[in-house]
Batch of 4 targets.
Target 1
Amino acid sequence: MTDHESGGQREDRAREDYHDPTAGFGGAAPARSALTLRLVLAAFGLIVCTLGAAAFVILANEPALAGILAFLAAVAVVDIVVVARRKLRGEPG
């Protein structure tokens, strides 16, 4: 995306019904994703899982549980990246 593109052009590039296979059935409005809420929840999950993994390694000496929480923290990072890219593309939410 170039610097001279306006917000309206980014909105045009967003895929309105892409994530809603039932859009338009029975006159229903297209579903909208709550991207900001998803971003906040993923950030919260990242913080909690990272702190939990560190606590299990340092305090409880439980590497298996720390590994599970570290994996969930990595999933949260991927979700943050996906949501941030969708928001930058101009998808509402």
Target 2
Amino acid sequence: MSLAEWRAVAGASARWFGFRAPKRAVALLVVALLVVACGEDPVAPPDVVPPPTPSYPVAEALPALALSTTFGAAITSKEEYITGSYRITGTDGAIMQEGALEIRGRGNTTWGMPKKPYRLKLGTSTALMGMPANRHWVLLANYSDKTLIRNDVTFELSRKLGMEWTPRSQFVEMSLNGAYQGVYQLVEHVRIAPDRVNIPELKVSDTSATNVTGGYLMEVDERRGEDFCFNSTRTRMIFCLSNPETLNEPAWAKHRAYITNYIKQVDDAIYSPQFADPQAGYAAYIDVESAIRYYIVNELFKNVDGNLRLSTYLYKKRGGKLFFGPVWDFDLAMGNVNYDGADLVQGWHTRTAQWFTRLFQDPAFAAQVKARWAQMKSDKTVDALFNYISARQAFLSKVQARNFEKWPILSTWVWPNRVVTGSYDGEINAMSFWLFQRHGWMDTQISQ
């Protein structure tokens, strides 16, 4: 359902029960939807007429991605690739792409789950399923996200907000060495490339005053998941760089010095007495529009890692500023987590992050966020997002059944789920309704 349809149903429910307070109507609808999700039959309010439901395409099957490792070897490492091959077959049975690859595990907590995520490195740069050619790809398992679409929905909002680059993805049914593994999301790996994060790829010889300024792709990662990581001078933020992989070697000393000093300049500008000055403050060092877009995506979805601790990508253009993005790792967003207050529809999360706390002390930054939010309301961005969720729910409605036959977890708590609904539609309803409430709470705070 669209945002307007959620409001209509909530309002009708409130009228039937005689409630005047919108919050009580919303709470009622939550209970009703969760009861439905758990398979029980509530008595429908007599004056609630469900709005017309658009007809969305339903996938009878997904393209099949068959992975084979050499000699059927098990994939046991996140660091070491093993060799193998791949074949993508369309729903009509025709081979779309095939070739050699290397494969390894990926992820942090997700690597410890039964349904594993993977990194793929193709033998040759190849365009897969309409996505631009590259050797490097990711298979997201979305095991703890029983809707299977939280990352997909996040990418859609990122595109709607106009972030410079958003990873493209396609759903596939994956098998490994002949054994069916379920519905996976084949995603472009976040890396420097013309069709991905489009910044210059540094060479060891790029030491001139101009060339040394970029490009740098980094991740805020308190786990220190790369060889070269460094601490912010004023906050608890930890920045890690994986490109180039040799950045820790002595020949790259000037590049290391440049990027660590640039982040220090960002820190100093944000926390200086003149931090709001457009020429001397934070706006001289970071791309403000990208920060606002990043903020809205993470705050609306209340991404538990979106408070500048983990899975936050930033990139520094050559001769340019520091940009926020691309978005990544939202399987625990939109009410799919039971800790750190990220389960609650009320309350700020990303706004409490160290840099953002300071940025919101600038009335000009807060005003720009408010203006961007108003634009989202005007162009019905969130309405379109609810329609997108409904379309994806319908699209996966048949193939998800095979996934959950392989992984029968719909009635089982999986870390760190907030709710267990017992059905695929129940999971979508719970996510959608949480988002409906979250959007309403944020709107009252930002629009006032």
Target 3
Amino acid sequence: MLSKSDKNIKEVMAQLAVLGIEAAYIVPTITGLEKSILDAHEGLRNYFRRTNFHDYGIQQQGTEFKRLEKCFFITENEIIESKVSLYRPQTKTGDPRIWFYHLNNYASAHNLLVLFVYKSNLYIVNASNSQVWKTLNIYGSPLNEFLESMASRVSLIETELLNKLVGIYKLGFQPSTTNSDNGVGDTLENLLGIKRNSSRSPDYKGIELKAARLSSRTNSQLNRSNLFSKIPNWELSTLKNGSEILDKFGYYPNNTDHRKALHVTLNNKPNAQGLYLELNTDQYLIENLRKTTYSIEKIVLWKLDELETELEKKHNKTFWIKAEAKLINRHEHFLYKIVEATSNPMITNFGTLVSTGSITVDYTFSEKERSSGKIYARDHGYLWKIAPSDFALLFPPKRIFDLSNISVA
């Protein structure tokens, strides 16, 4: 299990994120090293499938269907060829297994192994070995040269959109279309001529747009970045809809309001309601649990691969647009100043970032009253967000455009 790692996985992810490199991770156990067999957990399997290295999902059980491939250990001074075994045993449900020949020469129990697929080959680095991992920043070392070779760099559509954003910047401060928090995004879409709709597709010809306010004091982003909205898997969840969540955990915002609300953020620590998120690596789930004095209660859950798919689909290309906000005649106005362009998020990092509290989900429920007087539950979405300080752990290095000082063709 990754949680048993003797190396801080978040630190490793951060170092690779600077280079825009995604990897998979595995932590061998004492038993695994003794028996020369390791579990190929779901995160690793997904990484292999997405990189076209190996698909356990279509592999048949039994030693006759075992697949042997070349792999390479990257050490302090050299890259050493070996073999990797990929198979599903005949017993039980054929849980996927993996083994790297001669692994015991390069790793001990609980070491953090970083796996890279590059040009159809598999490379392994022991991040727990400080003598090896520190060479990441040593020019000319095998690890440094390998990572540099993995690390490319605007399309016509990006140029078109940047030109429009420069034009919007030149208009100066523009009045918000709404008095709500989402005014910064809604106003931008209105200026770009994008009609409001419920589509889950990217906003502008394949480019997702995310607008945020800048702090007037620090000129940095104020709030978490909204990644996407994704409902739980109701079929597998204990509670079956948002109305049940609101009914069980909702509160009355003030003494005069007779309608419940539930506006809370869930991370890896229990909140006031005892609600929190946990990564279930065995079943590849994100679970919303509730901790009480005497027990842990299951509430709802998401399949992690479905969250990863949503992230990949939504943010293949994204413009994160930062705006200065100020009140003019007591009405909020925006000046869109900075564009941060990203592409190809590091999908494999998503689950780990949930487990460390870097990625959160917001519940936004409230009871509303129909004209008939009937009360119903209003669900504004299950909003998955990431803190600005951890943004680089999910997205490769961004290209930054200052709209006041760029020239685009």
Target 4
Amino acid sequence: MKTLSYRVIRNEPGKFEETLSREGTVILNKNGQPLALVLDATSESLESLLLLVSQIRAQLSVAEMRASARERGLDRLSPNEIRAEIEAVRSERSG
């Protein structure tokens, strides 16, 4: 996968378009750090790509929540402790 500075879009748009067309995916960097992932999309594939990207983002969010729960020891809660937490939140909301 090719990596380009984001300035290439402004300074050398033809190079950016050619690289994207050839590679299909380009990582844009700013100050040496990843800034964006650019996917080559046709009008026919755009809707499918957008759906897949939203699904991937959801999966990443769930993975981050699970990792956070493990770090905080929440993956070791008993069913009774989980029920107690749920009831406490429900009580706060209703009361």
